[in-house]
Amino acid sequence: MEEFGTLPLTPDRWDDFETLFGPSGACYGCWCTHFRIPTAERKLMDGDAKKQFMKSRVMAGPAPGVLGYIGKRPVAWVQVGARSELPKWNSLNTVSRPLDSADADDPAVWAISCFFMNARDRGNGYSHRMLSAAVEFARSSGARIVEGCPIERTKQSKSVGLYVGSVRIFEAAGFSEVAKRKDGRPLMRLDL
């Protein structure tokens, strides 16, 4: 059995990201731009424009997240980086908004905002490993705080709604709830 491993999404790994997300860009053609681009602007973009936006971001560096692999096959993704890169995550109208408005611009306050896995690879515990890799990536990149805004429960264990992660995996990784602006969606934090 091939081992599971993780690597940052650097320009030389763009093809792996593209392979993982498939021709439609995963999650209804999002290409993991949901929190990166304001809603009004994102709604005007087609899948190719979102893909090009994300490719440009990856090529510009630093890595916007971590890829998970089984052997050489990309199977998972977690977006992790400074809150300042995620305008929608910081919006005053969202459950993920920062506790302190200064956190939105603080380069040492990071967010773990999205997870994606191949359908055939879900349910194997990779979310735990991806979250652990995201925390280590944040720590090694100088973050002092990392936050997530996961979902408490979904109707199906493999629901697309788990793109924000589950409370269960964040709790297992040592995150604590710091705010709850909506039932089922706590803001969780880990001090590094």
UniProtKB/TrEMBL annotation:
Residues 7-192 form the N-acetyltransferase domain. One of its GO terms (molecular function) is acyltransferase activity, transferring groups other than amino-acyl groups. Keywords: Transferase. This is GNAT family N-acetyltransferase.
